[in-house]
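Reading a protein record of the kind used here takes only a little practice. The integers have meaning only within a learned vocabulary of local backbone shapes. With that in mind, consider the following protein and its fold in token form:
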Amino acid sequence: MPHAATDVSRPCSSSSSSKGNKEEVIIDEDVKLLKELNYEPILHRQFDWFDNFCAQFAALDNINTVRMTFTMGVHFAGPAAYWIAFLVSSVFASMTAATLAEVCSALPAAGSVYFWAAKAAGPKFGMLAAFLVAWWSATGWTTFAASNSQAITGYIFAEVNVFGGSYKTDVNDVHFRAVQWIVAEALLLICIILNQLSPKNYRWVFRIAFFFIIVDVLLNFIWLPISVSRSYGFRDAKFVFTAIRYPAEYLDAAKQHIVPHAWKWCLAYFASTGVLCGIDASGHVAEETRHASKSAAHGLFWSTVSTAVLAFGCVIMFLFCIPPDDMLEQTLYNESSTQPFVNMYALALGRKAHVFMNVWIIIEMIFNTSIGIVASSRLVFAIARDGVLPFSGWISKVSKDGLPRNAITAIYIIASLILCSILPSNMAFSSLISGGVTPGFAIYALINICRLLNLNPEMPAARWSVGIFSKPFQFCAIIYNIFAFAINVSPYAYPVTGKNFNYSCVIFGSVTIFAFLCWIFVPRDKWLTAVFERMRTV
């Protein structure tokens, strides 16, 4: 959300060279665009279009998100249901990205979805939409840092299971959870330290992360298939493209199906939709991107499309590489392993050779988590700038080099506290992070509903657009994201018990209540800025 103009110097290049002059002209164009919206930019512009692309590409991290959801995706209804769900999700997520890229092109400012929702909802509903999206998005992105830090520990401790160590890696053991918590906190701290780099230097983190992901994909498309062909062998095409399986836990004592087959297919979307959530990351760093009205829009759309294509390719490749049924208990369905994919790599690549792959993945995930913190810190900074969050005055302060360091610190404090929930029980931690993905779908649906209904006729025109496909894409995005939201708050294990209950609905509902309370009690005059003062109706 834009804030009232403040006495802040305009970030621009001081170089007298032709390159410096060109950068200054580009920055002036970006500043001019935002000033037309009565928006005074604060963050320094150090990123180009490729940095913006890499930011979202790395935050989505196509192959790692597939690895983390693959077993669940295959489990619900079998390989056929999983790859079909992933294909459908890829198409509709790309449509959603196109609609968001249009808004990003019109409003390339820090905070992205928060600012976009406020503008798209117009003068009457803008404040409510902004507060809802502010709390939803802050919840999603802050839990991302904690969940990813914990996920990295899974790859580390999985080696104990591979090499047959005596150390117990059972999440029900409080001693192991304590060690897991310490390691996760240390990994989170490393990611936070990386975020202390100046924007000018951090651009290299974007590019290194991109490099690690591409090499990871190549290793899995070249090394893994070769090793599988030399070890346990590939699954046949019939299994990959047509096999349908319904888990035994979906049957009651009389062997009657307690869950309709159609719903089991729907549950496959629980795995596929999560891979392509977070497609607003490019928008969060738009204010720091040169020529943002086009570069950030391109970065948002094309990083989503490329992620969808590569992730779908990884899904098909992994389906062919699934071990035989008699080996599944020791690999992908190994309940004693903290990350079953490591066991599959060990079986295919070898006990020693797979370590290189695992170390590469761990380093890649550290970069991925760090970049996720970049996106979340810019979002939290923009929200706090308008006084929506507690301690907003402190969180919204920016350092001399244009870095929202206090927002980064706030993310660290919140993520650290979430990680502490590992100590009492693994279920407590899982419950807290279960709402991480769900808010994203609600946000994308809400923004597109506002645009489709044209709640703000004065919405700025986009400099990047899909033309006549804009309205159809908005409609498709609404249907898809509402469906994805419903899937992600529904039970995914039956019968439902306290241990397998999906707490995302509880988390989302609680956060929504907080958003409504803020909307009710925060003075409208305190929140409204120059743009919305013109449109104010009360």
